[in-house]
Amino acid sequence: MWRLPKSSFSFSSLRKLILTRDISGSASSPSLSIWRRKKEMSKESLMVAKELKRLQSHPVRFDRFIKSHVSRLLKSDLVSVLAEFQRQDQVFLCMKLYDVVRKEIWYRPDMFFYRDMLMMLARNKKVVEAKQVWEDLKREEVLFDQHTFGDIIRAFLDSGLSSEAMFIYHEMRSSPDPPISLPFRVILKGLIPYPEFREKVKDDFLKLFPDMIVYDPPEDLFEDQEWRRESDEE
């Protein structure tokens, strides 16, 4: 709690105190996101998670349980259940709770909420669901920072979803957030199996950061990665 000094009080000192509080609050606001806090599960959230997994193959009972129990969960419990399902790669349950969260009165669009959803969907190669989530975040005008863009793009690349990754890369390039070098390096490493896409990103990188060097792996590595990708597709 902020308290005024007992001595030498003035309106100028009060104004300075308020400005200091506002600046420090703004600087630390990312750490206040509920989606970044440690998500410990209570007994009630554990019970709800277990029951949702049991009922997911019974649509009518599942929807009834959502309305009767999930909608009554505390905010912290609902967040922890969603986080646990993301950890377990329970796509169906994650999408159901994703819809529930966005209807809650306390819900506010949040970069980390969308980041976690997209990372989970990328791991599981769920393109249709990822497009839905992306359309939602665009409607809600959620802006990713450059590091988050890099992490999400790399997740899609690591799952072999190169077209989706490059779509998000173009979104990154049009972002108002100033470009920084590290996310580009993360993306370039993930693009090793995709030489044509990699050349495009490499050209952008060198234009943005002309004094930096990009390490190019040997050409035979590109050929080996291409062979592996074709084998996986077969």
TrEMBL record:
Q: Which residues cross the membrane?
A: none
PPR repeats span 145-179
Keyword annotations for this protein? Repeat
Record carries keyword Repeat:
yes
Pfam families linked to this entry:
PPR (PF01535)
Q: Respond yes or no to whether keyword Repeat is given for this record.
A: yes
Q: Tell me the protein's name.
A: Pentacotripeptide-repeat region of PRORP domain-containing protein
